[in-house]
TrEMBL record:
Entry's EC annotation: 1.3.8.1
Protein name from the UniProt record: Acyl-CoA dehydrogenase, short-chain specific
PROSITE patterns named among the record's database cross-references: ACYL_COA_DH_2 (PS00073)
Native species: Nocardia otitidiscaviarum
Domain (Acyl-CoA oxidase/dehydrogenase middle) ranges: 125-220
Family: Belongs to the acyl-CoA dehydrogenase family.
Length: 458
């Protein structure tokens, strides 16, 4: 297993550039956009100028074989502000869905339309959730019916980021009534298509700089080329799922999209949690009560220690899930959901504790912790609630019952030489014992050379 936590030079520079952007261009305006609930177009323009708002940028990060570039970028961006961060990365969620389903020709056509170019920015939306079905994909009621060379979509979508103002909407709809949620397909609906109606922009508790909407689709007609993957692929998929249903198996393209994006969302929550931890620690160091900094009080310092531990644990889960996604290792134990569950819940705990640490100051808008608290709560809800994550993990563990842990179950790397002479092998142990046994009869330089081979890395 070649999971390495050392960042490459490019990853290190990416994290530094993202942090600088968040510090200098996001944080100074975060409170304004939160109060006004305005879409942060100037910040998006700055992101685009820095290369952070582009389909090629996100495809490049997704293609990182270590899997760490994307979560490192996300954490820094959302350390700045979750609402503005969502406005910047929302098209990447749509791009991820397109990338999983589209033909190469569709990818080339639609990916640039999700972002536009500096000075001519565009938006994209992933329209999955509905008033009667968010995490419960079995209850999604939007339907698409074929009409000659077109598809006609009717339905109702809710909680859609960039919904109604996006240039590209990626919409899931049931195309086979008998298969239900297993008979869904993804369509591209351009903004302004007749029948696509923005019902209202939602007034939210947090992440208020991002646009979230309720949409209706009333006889929305799209051409065949807007069916992601094309008709032949759709027919093959439906045939496979009819057979799988007959064999007692099930699956959903929508759930697959969620599972792959959950590490990305977990990294966003980590950014909020880390911001709160850093802020409360700094405050506790300089705030004095009863003649000493309040961090000297165990009632303050112990919760900070617990939060620091839990944030690092959630980050490791997130990086592992991202590494698995990059390497094509299936999430057979719900590893993506583990990461999202841990990160989202520690974000809520960290921001709540930050308010408590600041006391009355934490409850008013003079400090950003009350905003972070409102922002963090979203992460236990969207992309699957915490309850859904627990269901996914529990079901995955039930299906994997009796199997060894992931690090034992994975296909080993290193080849036959590593198997024979790697650390901990019998051959290596016998060589070490022989070297120690001959230490009095062998010249010292030879013994030192042997010990250098066996010693742990420094």
């Amino acid at each position: 297993m070649t999971f390495d936590l050392t960042p490459t030079a490019a990853q290190h520079e990416l994290a530094e550039r993202a942090h600088e952007f968040a510090r200098d261009h996001i944080r100074p305006v975060a409170a304004h956009y939160d109060r006004a609930q305005e879409f942060p177009w100037p910040v998006l323009e700055e992101a685009a100028a820095r290369g952070f708002y582009s389909p090629l940028f996100y495809r490049d990060l997704i293609g990182d074989p270590t899997g760490l570039s994307l979560p490192m970028f996300m954490e820094e961006l959302f350390w700045g502000c979750a609402g503005i961060g969502l406005a910047i990365v929302m098209p990447a969620l749509a791009l991820s869905a397109i990338g999983r389903a589209a033909t190469p020709e569709q990818m080339i056509h639609w990916a640039p339309e999700c972002f536009g170019t500096p000075g001519d920015l565009k938006l994209a939306a992933l329209a999955i959730s509905e008033p009667e079905g968010g995490s419960d994909v079995r209850n999604l009621r939007t339907r698409a019916v074929r009409d000659g060379d077109d598809w006609i979509i009717d339905g109702h979508k809710m909680w859609i980021g960039n919904g109604g103002i996006a240039h590209v909407h990626v919409v899931n709809a049931v195309v086979d009534e008998q298969l239900g949620h297993r008979g869904q397909a993804l369509f591209v609906v351009p903004g302004g298509t007749p029948g696509l109606q923005l019902v209202r922009k939602l007034d939210k508790l947090g992440c208020r700089a991002s646009h979230t909407a309720e949409l209706t689709f009333d006889g929305v007609r799209v051409p065949m080329e807007n069916l992601l993957g094309g008709p032949e692929r759709l027919e093959r998929m439906l045939a496979e799922r009819r057979e799988a249903r007959g064999n007692g198996r099930s699956g959903s393209a929508t759930l697959g999209t969620f599972e792959q994006t959950r590490p990305m969302v977990a990294a966003q929550a980590l950014g909020i949690a880390r911001a709160a931890l850093e802020y409360m620690t700094s405050y506790a160091n300089r705030r004095e009560a009863f003649g000493a900094p309040i961090i000297d009080n165990q009632g303050i310092s112990f919760p900070i220690a617990d939060l620091a531990t839990q944030i690092d644990a959630a980050r490791l889960l997130t990086w592992r899930a991202s590494w698995m996604a990059a390497r094509g290792v299936p999430f057979e134990r719900g590893e993506g959901s583990m990461a999202k569950l841990a990160a989202s819940e520690i974000a809520v705990r960290a921001t709540e504790r930050a308010i408590q640490t600041l006391g009355g100051w934490g409850y008013i808008t003079d400090h950003p912790v009350e905003k972070w608290y409102r922002d963090a709560k979203l992460y236990t809800i969207f992309e699957g609630t915490s309850e859904i994550q627990r269901i996914v993990v529990a079901q995955a563990m039930g299906a994997a019952a009796g199997r060894p842990p992931l690090h034992i179950d994975l296909e080993p790397s290193g080849g036959p030489l590593n198997r024979m002479f790697g650390r901990g092998t019998p051959a290596r142990g016998r060589a070490a014992a022989a070297a120690l046994g001959m230490r009095d009869r062998v010249p010292a330089p030879v013994v030192r050379a042997a010990m250098k081979v066996l010693r742990p890395p420094r």
